[in-house]
């Protein structure tokens, strides 16, 4: 995406060292953001790869097609890449349900690989922590892969190995409902945390050297994963209940527990305020489920209808200030070693004043204003994510 300044290596080395210090001299926020390695751990953008007429190499807008990530906006926002999500909606826990989900997830993985192959001069697949800086230095976008919802694995844990071979390096057990592995934050507590198969899932994740993603996991599921995992856990797109008491957010005690085990909470930009659901919005969401078959004109019409509804009844009436309050709360609670970025772009995230990835430099500027050092910000913007990935790599096979 951009050639990094030589100072980046020093900044990242410092990010792995001891306690952060407050900045003492004025720093150019734009210049700092440009030289940092900036990663987001939850990019739902692959959901757009199959849309007729949609090209990641072209600049889009929320108003045109409701997307938040493309290569031009990534360059403008200094986003070097991150974890591109293989998301599968929860379905029935049946043989057919598992088979259909597996086929869908493999197809989405193929789509990610195909997009990278189509843009070889601007994108590159990454599978190790060391890949990130090499790819960024070459001016290309970093494409790690992750799985949101392990439902497609069915009851066959060997499929984790298949996805590992395809490049997946982070996986979460659940999404919005309980499944064969665990309970969800918005489920019915079927298992009281992890199922027996879910406990085996944790062990296999550790053995393969994959990062466990705790977002969407129930409190009991998270507690048990923390107890069982040999390596730190990431919450790829979560936030604190102190910002908004929503089931998807974490209480301070669990945030501290994640940090105590070396983990990182990647701050989300949704669930910052009460969500405004309505029959009108439900109808639009039902239309959006068919967006993969819509013409570009139909997509623009849907985007206009969403914009009209949001103008009178925003789904989440939150701003950049709400987002920063959430991030700053977690920073004060557990420190810069345990906070990162996972805004849920193209999956429901975005707030007024930070509508898409082009506006990410505002975060660096605000953190500097709050007194955080360059070393702190290097950790938050990507260093902590790579530290946890390295820990998973080091434990592989043990």
Question: What keyword list fits this structure?
Answer:
Pept_M19; alpha/beta; Metal_Hydrolase; 398 residues; TIM Barrel; 15 helices; signal; Dipeptidase; 2 domains; 9 strands
* Overall mean pLDDT: 93
The main β sheet shows up as: 9 strands, parallel
Instruction: Report the principal-axis shape.
Output: globular
Roughly how many Å apart are the termini? 36 Å
Domains, number: 2
Level of helix content? Answer: 40-55%
Q: How many beta-strand runs?
A: 9
- Structural classification: alpha/beta
Rg from C-alpha positions? 20 Å
> What is the CATH homologous superfamily assignment of the largest domain?
Metal-dependent hydrolases
CATH level-3 fold name of the largest domain: TIM Barrel
CATH C-level class of the largest domain is: Alpha Beta
* Helix run count: 15
Uncertain residue segments? 5-23
Which architecture of the largest domain does the CATH hierarchy give at level 2?
Alpha-Beta Barrel
SSE arrangement, N to C: HHEHHEHEHEHEHEHEHEHHHEHH
In terms of DSSP E residues, the strand content is 5-15%
